[in-house]
Write a structure and sequence with these properties.
By secondary structure, the protein is of the alpha/beta class. The chain has three domains: 2-95, Alpha-Beta Plaits (2-Layer Sandwich), CATH 3.30.70; 105-182, Histidine-containing Protein, Chain: A, CATH 3.30.1340.30; 205-273, Histidine-containing Protein, Chain: A (2-Layer Sandwich), CATH 3.30.1340. Helices cover 40% and strands 22% of the residues. The protein contains eight helices and twelve strands. It has helices spanning 2-39, 41-44, 70-81, 105-118, 145-156, 177-182, 205-218, 245-256; strands at 51-57, 60-67, 88-91, 94-95, 127-132, 135-142, 163-166, 169-170, 227-232, 235-242, 263-266, 269-270. The strands form three sheets. Strands 1, 2, 3 and 4 form a four-stranded mixed β-sheet that branches. Strands 5, 6, 7 and 8 form a four-stranded mixed β-sheet that branches. Strands 9, 10, 11 and 12 form a four-stranded mixed β-sheet that branches. Strand 1 and strand 2 (60-67) form a beta hairpin. It is globular and about 80 Å long. It starts with a helix and ends in an 8-residue tail after the last strand.
């Protein structure tokens, strides 16, 4: 009888220890998730002026606070969702100043600005964007005609844009081989784009995935595609289906120009290929 009592006590003690260890493990994982989110490149650059509170319980993350626009709300969610250990994201972020109606000029201006900021071969920081009745006007300086034209194409492809008026001027500068060498660039290497604050630091994979996913949602050409995104050491692997080979190629090109992307592995399957997407 005494032996049975001892056995029962031992079982209870072991069970309590297992439960305790489980809670400690979950608590430790949650702490890592919160720290990773707050230290992510996206949170420290694009979202640094927003008021975002991250909480986690057993891998389920809740975002509260306020952000400046819908694009930042989307970006915060995608960043956290891409972190290891996250099982779900409850995005309760609100918009500062209230919600702008879809397709309103204010709403559209925020989407165009975000799109330009996510791409490295245009100068989103130096491009002024204004919108009136769906017509986007771009002002500022471009490094080249190619950069000016690319800015037009990116802005035109934002869902809701009815037309583009590009009044950007070209910078009156000549970049010599000596100047490129001083800047640490190889001769002929692209000098397009202005780096965001903190751009010199490494971009974590969760931030890269979030930037890619949000970029694809903002572009009209790719917003309807169900694209999967996986990033490892800056190499982005795309999966899912596209309507045709042109859509697949365009998706790959847009992604290759997103900050943090070192290389793109495009495993998307076009319907015209006659294959089945994994």
């Amino acid at each position: 009888m005494k032996y049975k009592r001892y056995s029962l006590a031992l079982i209870i003690a072991v069970a309590a220890l297992i439960l305790s260890d489980g809670k400690l493990f979950a608590s430790d994982t949650d702490a890592r998730i919160i720290a990773a989110a707050e230290q992510s490149y996206v949170f420290k650059t694009y979202l640094k002026n927003d008021n975002i509170i991250v909480t986690a319980k057993n891998g389920a993350v809740t975002l509260t606070g306020s952000v400046v626009d819908e694009s930042n709300k989307m970006l915060a969610k995608e960043t956290v969702a891409s972190l290891p250990g996250v099982t779900s994201v409850d995005n309760q972020l609100t918009l500062r100043g209230g919600l702008s109606a879809s397709n309103s000029d204010t709403w559209l201006m925020a989407r165009v600005k975000s799109t330009l900021l996510f791409h490295r071969n245009v100068d989103g920081m130096a491009t002024n964007v204004s919108v009136e009745n769906g017509i986007v006007t771009l002002r500022g300086e471009a490094n080249s005609t190619a950069q000016k034209d690319l800015t037009t194409e990116y802005a035109r492809d934002v869902d809701g844009v009815k037309g583009i008026n590009n009044e950007m001027t070209l910078k009156n500068t000549v970049i010599t081989p000596e100047k490129q060498a001083q800047d640490g660039k190889k001769i002929g290497e692209s000098t397009l784009g202005q780096k965001l604050d903190g751009m010199n630091e490494a971009i974590d994979d969760a931030s890269t995935s979030a930037l890619v996913k949000t970029t694809l949602l903002l572009h009209r050409s790719t917003s309807a595609l169900n694209t999967t995104v996986d990033t490892e050491d800056g190499v982005v692997t795309l999966g899912g289906k596209t309507g045709n080979a042109a859509e697949k190629d365009l998706t790959g090109k847009l992604v290759s120009d997103v900050y943090g992307v070192k290389r793109v592995v495009n495993n998307m399957v076009a319907a015209t290929d006659g294959k089945t997407a994994p």
